[in-house]
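Recall from the previous lesson that a structure prediction takes nothing but the amino acid sequence as input. Here we apply that procedure to Glycoside hydrolase family 2 protein from Paenibacillus yanchengensis. The sequence below is the only information supplied.
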Amino acid sequence: MALKDHYRKDYPRPQFVREIWESLNGSWDFIFDDKDVGEQLGYPQGFTPTHIIQVPFSYETKASGMQEEAFHPYVWYQKQVAISKQQLEKNVILHFQAVDYVAKVWVNGIFVGQHQGGYSAFSFDITAYLQPDSENRIIVKAEDSNSCTQPRGKQRWKEYNYGCWYVQTTGIWQSVWLEFVHPTFVNQVKMTPLYDDISVKFDYWITGLANTQAKYSITTIVSIDEQVLQEMTQTVQREQFTTIVSLMHQHLDWKVAHWSPNSPQLYEVSFLLKEDGQVVDTVHSYFGMRKIAIEHGKILLNNQPFYQRLILDQGYWQDSHLTPPSEEAIIDDIKNIMAMGYNGVRKHQKIEDARFLYWCDVLGVVVWSEAAATYEFNDEAVKRFTTEWIDIVNQHYNHPSIITWLPFNESWGIANVYNDVEQQQFTEAIYHLTKSIDAYRPVVVNDGWEHTISDILTLHDYEELGELLSKRYSDKQAIVGNRVSFSRSKLAFATGYSYREQPIIISEFGGIAFKHESGWGYGNQVASKEEFVERFRAITQAIKDLDYVCGYCYTQVSDVQQEVNGLLTEDRQPKVDLAIIKEINLAERKCGFEK
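The prediction returns the following tokens.
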């Protein structure tokens, strides 16, 4: 079983593949409901549309066919879906990859359920509400707001763009699809590579066992390069259980395949659920054997020092905003990143499309996964953020490309964390909650400055002169001891916290912009490619030559609306030769070069 055998173009969840599915992307009926009267007027039973929208693009985008940038707090979607009697022999699961912010769903006029959270996926079993061999009406109401207590990331909450905040995203903005499953099926498998033990831990969740007297078993088949390494069958007696599978193999020429940017090898795995000996559910997935660890102030990948050359990626496109315009566009972005000599991305203020993470897994690009921020601190913001973050960590746990979780950025949503004990305790709670779900990845708390508890010390500095960067960071102890400020007079640690020999990464710098009438970048804008390259080379090398810094993250991949400091334009045209950027990124460090 080769990974390519189970690849399905545009499949919304490529880490957990079933053969039988149906995309509901495309044309949907649409209507604005600014006064929130739709439920009273019977919209859940059906409505007369005022627009046709192209899902999964939000109404604010050109790709949606509407391009209405004004904020509308309540919007409705409607689609007729034909379901055959044969399809209804299975359970029908309606999946939403992302809807911002609250989604309420009706099928044939019956309320199915609702979900809150603009960046996490969710689903409903709609089997009981469907009629066979007829058109079935799916209605979705999306509720959004300008509240800063909801995780919104870079979405503006004013009527206009300002600073680094852009046009909001309302409603469905990732794929909608149907999946057809047996009443008892594999709901989730959490896969944890145990690198040093040459094994992998599988945590299984099975849905539907309570409704049957049948006997179930699950067969787990692990293979690589079409060679089966292990095949194990075990009885299923409860909904959640765990097993560990060794990857040791009897062939003399066998060796473990490891995942890294230099060699992104993946193991294929299939899960076959059997009812009384007959296969009733088959899921295809994959995992990477890789280990992230922190020792003696270094970040280790597969027990070797790993120097991270990251680039900030906000994941915006010119005509489709947060939604990738196509799978090809995702692949092109990742290949451009690699062509510039970066080995990873910090996905900034956005939980990315699962297809993006899939291609990072396949092509070998590491990912720092960052939460969308709230901008207020109160009980409601804490509740909303925590609930959504738990879902996100669980949903994306299996991607080997994700090597760092990043719940907070630059004190957004925790504006007084420097000396406010309640906000500090919130960050500690999120750190430990994340670790309780994922003990194997580092967690960065408050990327940029004013760290509380954090596995990595990350610093943001948009100094435009390389010699000043070198001078500022020449004394490590002055930085980590809060004696030297940076980035608008910020300090490395919040009050009451101190350096614990964490690895140090300059996780935002650069942001160089060419001269532009209205757009902005960091520092003075440059007038020529030569001036750009000179400045880019100087600041990049200044960071690389700091012997105690183990990586950096340049701002940023592409321009985003009014922010014009990308290495690519908003429509993904290079501003300078990508080979020059790569040469600078790969140039040797004076203190030694670590792959």
